[in-house]
Design the sequence.
C-alpha cells in the first residue's frame, strides 16, 4: 500500500472483506427469518446481532430457543461455541496490546471469524504501516453493518421468505470459509494440520455443545507444530552431517 | 425478561472471550512455541467448522454420497479456489455449483 493513511487502511480493510460480506448475506437473512419460527422476539433477534455479533453461536442459540432450552444452558453453549475466538485474540495479542484500551475494546467486540482471517493477513504483512488497526476496523464495521442489515431484512421479510432455510443458502458460509482456508495451504505442515483438524472434527462430531470444534482445532495446531519440529530436526541432521 | 437475560448473557460471554486476553495482556507473555502453534489457528479452526457442516448437513447423520450437495459443492469450491486463487470467484462459483447440484439431485 503506497503511503498508508487511516482512511486508506480503513477502506482497504472493508474492500478485502467484501467477498466474505457477500458470503454472510444469505446467512444473516436466514437468521432473521428463522427467528420468528423459533419463537425469539424481534427485539431479541436484533439484540443478538447488535450485541453478540457471532453468527454460528446465534444460529445454535436459535435452535436451542426453538427446542425450549433454558437460557443459562444457551449461554453456556455460546461460551463453548465461541471459545475459538480466544485463539484469535491470542494470535493477534502482540499486535493489539500496543493499542489504546478503547481500540482494544472495539476490535475485540468485532473479532468474528471473517474479520480475524482478513485482519491477520494484514498484521502479518511485513510493512511498517502504523495504521493496521484501521484496516481491521474497516473490516469489522463492514461485517457488522451488513450482518445487522441482513438480520433486519430477514425479520421484516420473514413471512414472505418462509422456507428459505431449506434452500441450502447456508452453503454460502461453507464456500466463504473454504475460500479463506485455501491461501494458507502452502506448506506441508499446514496441510497436515488441516487434515488432522478435519479428521478430528469428524471423530468428535458427537460431542455435546460443539466441544469437538475446540478439540479438533487444538489437535490440528499440535499436528502442524509436530511436523514443523520433525522437519527442523531433519534439516538439522543433514546440516550437521555436512559439517563433519 | 428471559430473552433479555439470554441476549445479555450471550453478549457478555462472547465479549469476555474476545477481550479477556487483552485485559491481561500486560501480565502475560506467550512463549515462542505457543506463538508458532497460533499461526495455524485460521486454517485449522475454519476447517473444524467446515468439515462437519459438509459431512453432516442435517446435523446428526454422516452423509457420504453424491446426493449430498454440500459435499459435492465443497469439493467443487476447493477446486475453484485452487484454480482461481480469488476469494470472490471461489465463493460465488462454489455457491453456483452447490445450487446446480442440489437442483439436479432434487429433480431426479
Sequence:
Amino acid at each position: 500500500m503506497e503511503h498508508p493513511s487511516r482512511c486508506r487502511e480503513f477502506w482497504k480493510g472493508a474492500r478485502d472483506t467484501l467477498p466474505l460480506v457477500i458470503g454472510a448475506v444469505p446467512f444473516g437473512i436466514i437468521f432473521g427469518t428463522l427467528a420468528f419460527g423459533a419463537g425469539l422476539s424481534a427485539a431479541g433477534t436484533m439484540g443478538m446481532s447488535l450485541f453478540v455479533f457471532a453468527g454460528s453461536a446465534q444460529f445454535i442459540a436459535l435452535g436451542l430457543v426453538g427446542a425450549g432450552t433454558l437460557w443459562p444452558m444457551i449461554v453456556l453453549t455460546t461460551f463453548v461455541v465461541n471459545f475459538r475466538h480466544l485463539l484469535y485474540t491470542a494470535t493477534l495479542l502482540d499486535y493489539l496490546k500496543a493499542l489504546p484500551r478503547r481500540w482494544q475494546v472495539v476490535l475485540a467486540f468485532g473479532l468474528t471469524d471473517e474479520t480475524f482471517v482478513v485482519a491477520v493477513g494484514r498484521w502479518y504483512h511485513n510493512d511498517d504501516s502504523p495504521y493496521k488497526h484501521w484496516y481491521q476496523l474497516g473490516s469489522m464495521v463492514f461485517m457488522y453493518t451488513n450482518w445487522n442489515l441482513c438480520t433486519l431484512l430477514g425479520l421484516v421479510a420473514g413471512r414472505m421468505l418462509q422456507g428459505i432455510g431449506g434452500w441450502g443458502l447456508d452453503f454460502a458460509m461453507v464456500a466463504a470459509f473454504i475460500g479463506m482456508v485455501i491461501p494458507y495451504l502452502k506448506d506441508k505442515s499446514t496441510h497436515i494440520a488441516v487434515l488432522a483438524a478435519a479428521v478430528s472434527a469428524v471423530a468428535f462430531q458427537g460431542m455435546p455443545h460443539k466441544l469437538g470444534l475446540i478439540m479438533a482445532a487444538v489437535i490440528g495446531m499440535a499436528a502442524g507444530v509436530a511436523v514443523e519440529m520433525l522437519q527442523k530436526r531433519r534439516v538439522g541432521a543433514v546440516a550437521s552431517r555436512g559439517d563433519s | 425478561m428471559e430473552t433479555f437475560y439470554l441476549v445479555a448473557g450471550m453478549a457478555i460471554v462472547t465479549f469476555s472471550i474476545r477481550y479477556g486476553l487483552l485485559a491481561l495482556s500486560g501480565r502475560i507473555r506467550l512463549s515462542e512455541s505457543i506463538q508458532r502453534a497460533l499461526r495455524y489457528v485460521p486454517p485449522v479452526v475454519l476447517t473444524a467448522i467446515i468439515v462437519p457442516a459438509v459431512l453432516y448437513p442435517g446435523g446428526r447423520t454422516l452423509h457420504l454420497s453424491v446426493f449430498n450437495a454440500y459435499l459435492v459443492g465443497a469439493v467443487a469450491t476447493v477446486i475453484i479456489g485452487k484454480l482461481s486463487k480469488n476469494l470472490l470467484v471461489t465463493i460465488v462459483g462454489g455457491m453456483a455449483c452447490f445450487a446446480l447440484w442440489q437442483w439436479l439431485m432434487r429433480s431426479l
Summary: The two ends of chain B are 48 Å apart (CA to CA). The mean pLDDT of chain B is 90.
